[in-house]
Design goal:
Blueprint: H1 4-13, H2 47-50, E1 60-62, E2 69-78, E3 85-94, H3 123-130, E4 177-178, E5 184-185, E6 196-203, H4 218-221, E7 225-226, E8 234-235, E9 237-245, E10 251-253, E11 264-266, E12 269-283, E13 289-302, E14 307-318, E15 340-342, E16 354-355, E17 362-364, H5 372-375, E18 379-381, E19 388-397, H6 402-414, E20 421-423, E21 436-445, E22 456-472, E23 479-495, E24 502-515
Parallel strand pairs: 9-13, 12-14, 21-23, 22-24
Antiparallel strand pairs: 1-2, 2-3, 4-5, 6-14, 7-8, 9-10, 11-12, 12-13, 15-16, 15-20, 17-18, 19-24, 20-21, 22-23
Protein name: TECT1 protein
Family: Belongs to the tectonic family.
Domain Tectonic-1-3: 159-318, 328-515
């Protein structure tokens, strides 16, 4: 272009001016009006004191190490001189990294601006600006503008990105949360694909309960959600369910209640105030929101109440997919199903694991009739920490063939699709292949002497699953982690029965959980238990 030289001159003029004179900067000068040993940049040191130095503790002094080019003060000792003397050089240092700062176009970052102190006159303004969970300060201007502005929406993303605030027609979807203290702030935006759960306290008054926005259902569903950022396509927030909580804590689900129930002051009570909201957002694989629903918990307060605790939650589900339930986060929770899956034939291992139909490890489920043939297909989930045993009885006649009978019993014990892997943690994801433990299969066969091989056959009669787990992580809050799973199939020899004779054999399936956590070392003294309850917002803003 014709103006290449002018653009280059502008870029050169935008190079950062030195904020600090490195020749006067000395980070090892700690003593006032005294010489610091081996501090070659200390202005308090005399040539006689420099001659006693053995080395320079800080040989190079620079300003901002992120700049592409800057001045650097280099200090060294000339030990060959008599007496030894200090050598000082001021050089231009070039940053070898390709990620460096060439132009400082945000001038406000070059100096420390003293914060504005709160006063009775500006307190409300500062609270509105900085009192929310997130705030930003737009720079007054950018020093370098090398490109002409494009047409509107030319470079804007037409889909939601992870963590981006969910936009509505007036602002964003609100998920109240505690800020600084435990009081609710309505300025917290809900982030896309960010599952959140918050609790906070809101000031209430029975006389004014119908005028407090945060206590009304309308406050949480009156603004439609933008399907994609900065679009005209709207998604209305529908009411999924309403649960009413009485003063004694009893909850009742209102059947067919999908309308608004606004706060109502009645005598000394205020009815229909919002105690909890659970948003459920459905989105597509392209990052567009297609459905939004809210489940409410409404309650009542008396005139003695000065505040009320509210809970808020938001979850996301991709359209045309089934959510996989978790069994812990991260460790397994006792009583929840053990998650399992398999790898389809020909599917690359590193491409990920696919969960089975129920995403669970299952065993034979006993039936009232105790008939193995009737129990085929009935499965019970294996629940973490629960030792289980189940079984059935098989009536064998002389007319039964060996091979079909063996296959039928195998299907009864293992099911139609026995998984190949078990999740080591309760929240292991299918794409994290290292978080899945392969199931080891063992086969024990009971051999008996028989006159002819044709007169006997091997049929499976029991399946024993041993799950070895260990305590993982901190001693204060250990997490249950599965490290090994072994499935042992036992078979027995069945002799050919004479015509007209029958035989009944038991078929069993069992699961045993074994804790293999390493015992404490001899003389180890556990940490004392502190029996206290932290406030729910103790770790805010960290979850």
């Amino acid at each position: 272009p014709a103006d290449t030289g002018g653009a280059a001159q502008k870029r050169a003029s935008g190079a950062p001016a030195p904020v600090t004179d490195v020749a006067r900067l000395c980070v090892c000068d700690l003593l006032v009006a005294r010489c610091d040993a081996n501090c070659c940049c200390d202005p308090d040191c005399s040539p006689e004191e420099f001659s006693l130095f053995t080395s320079c503790s800080v040989p190079v002094v620079v300003g901002d190490s992120h700049l592409c080019r800057q001045k650097a003060a280099v200090y060294s000792l000339d030990v060959e001189a008599n007496p030894p003397e200090r050598i000082f050089q001021l050089i231009d240092q070039v940053n070898p990294s390709i990620f460096c700062i060439h132009a400082t176009n945000y001038k406000q970052a070059l100096h420390l601006r003293p914060p504005e102190m709160p006063t009775p006159e500006n307190f409300d303004r500062l609270l509105d600006e900085f009192g929310s969970a997130a705030f930003s300060a737009e720079p007054e201007g950018w020093g370098v503008a090398t490109e002409a502005p494009g047409p509107p929406d030319a470079n804007e993303t037409r889909s939601y990105q992870y963590g981006a605030p969910i936009q509505t027609e007036d602002a964003f979807l609100r998920l109240p949360s505690p800020v600084v203290s435990s009081w609710c702030s309505d300025a917290n935006p809900a982030g896309f694909l960010v599952n959140q759960a918050t609790k906070c306290i809101r000031s209430v008054s029975v006389e004014k309960c119908d005028s407090i926005q945060g206590l009304s259902m309308l406050f949480y569903i009156n603004s439609s959600i933008l399907a994609v950022p900065k679009s005209s396509q709207m998604v209305n927030v529908t009411v999924q369910s309403i649960v009413v909580q009485s003063l004694d804590g009893t909850r009742t689900l209102l059947e067919g209640a999908d309308g608004l129930r606004l706060p109502l002051a009645l005598d000394e009570l205020c009815l229909n105030i919002v105690l909890g909201v659970s948003y459920h957002i459905t989105y597509t694989d392209t990052g567009a929101i297609i459905e939004a629903a809210a489940a409410f918990v409404l309650g009542a307060i008396s005139k003695e109440a000065l505040s009320v605790q509210q809970s808020f939650q938001i979850s996301f589900t991709q359209a045309n997919t089934k959510p996989v339930p978790l069994s812990g986060n991260p460790g397994y929770v006792v009583g929840l199903p053990v998650r399992a899956g398999f790898r389809p034939q020909g599917y690359p291992f590193l491409a990920g694991l696919l969960t089975n139909r129920h995403s669970q490890l299952t065993i034979l489920q006993s039936t009232p009739s105790q008939d193995c043939l009737a129990a085929q297909g009935a499965r019970a989930p294996v629940r973490f920490g629960y030792n289980m045993i189940s079984g059935c009885k098989l009536r064998i006649t002389a007319a039964m063939k060996c091979q079909p009978l063996a296959q039928t019993l195998l299907d009864v014990l293992k099911g139609q699709s026995f998984p190949e892997y078990v999740a080591s943690f309760g929240n292991s994801q299918a794409q994290d292949v290292l978080d899945w433990v392969p199931i080891t299969h063992l086969h024990i066969s009971e051999q008996r002497l028989s006159n002819t091989l044709q007169s006997s056959c091997q049929i499976p009669v029991s399946l024993g699953i041993e799950v070895k787990w260990t305590k993982y992580g901190s001693l204060v809050n250990p997490q249950a982690r599965i490290v090994n799973v072994t499935a042992t199939l036992s078979s027995t020899t069945l002799k050919q029965l004479p015509s007209g004779r029958e035989r009944i054999i038991p078929v069993t399936s069992s699961v045993v959980f074994t804790d293999i956590s390493a015992p404490a070392e001899p003389g180890y003294k556990a940490w004392p238990t502190i029996n206290i309850k932290l406030p729910f917002d103790f770790f805010y803003p960290f979850v």
